[in-house]
Amino acid sequence: MAIIVNTNMSALRTQGNLNSATNSLNTALNRMSTGLKINSAADDAAGMFVASNLNTQIRGSKIAQSNVATGINVLQTAEGDYGVIEDNLLRIRDLANQAANGVYDAKSLKAMEDEVNARVAEINRIAKASNFNGLSLLDGKGIPADGLRLQVGANSDADINAIKVDPTVFANASAQALGLYGKAGGATFDSIAEAFANSSAAAQFIADVDVALQDVTTRKAAIGAVQNRLNSAADSLVTTIENATSAKSTIMDADIAEESANYTKYQILQQTSASVSYTHLTL
Can you count the helices (H) and strands (E) in the chain? Predict the structure, then answer.
């Protein structure tokens, strides 16, 4: 066996093992301290790329969850205001039905007319006042002509990431727009006074009130249908976030038990290599 003086291969191998054990020890320590298996692209470039994409989807889906909740709040606001308008219309119908009974004199009809006018004024006020975060809902002016777009997904494709609310849901809900009066708009009478001029007119007015009630009911039904879709979208987002988070965890999260074992293993190897390396240096 040759005796070599200038190059001590055993010492070099021992130093290499020491460096390797130290690097592995540092890796295990880093993973335990961060809880992550991938702390830089050098650890796993492909894994980090996939995890980054998953994280984008998770964040986008969480924003979409907030969008869905806000969309439901908008619809609930509109539905609540429609409920008040509907109550006023029902009272107007009751008064028209009462006035259609020919036992009331002119003063009584005028009293009924006055209450109807007050109810009409309240309907008009609600239509103008209905608002969500500065967005007018029932005056026919605040919502885009193509409807209200609700972003319910993490990406840009409208077919699978957005729900459109038909603009008719947010059409002008004033008494005249609903068809209570105004012959130009298709109503029987130009004014409430004409509708309560006599019992026959009041009887005809009932049909106009029914048209307005049908309009409001149709809008409320449309709101309910969209709310159901939004609730379904919310459930889907929960599943999407759970699955994406689980996939990201599989890629990124460190197994602390495994890393603890590795830390102990490489710590022993480091100490052993250091000891052997020192022995070679002192020989």
Answer: 7, 4
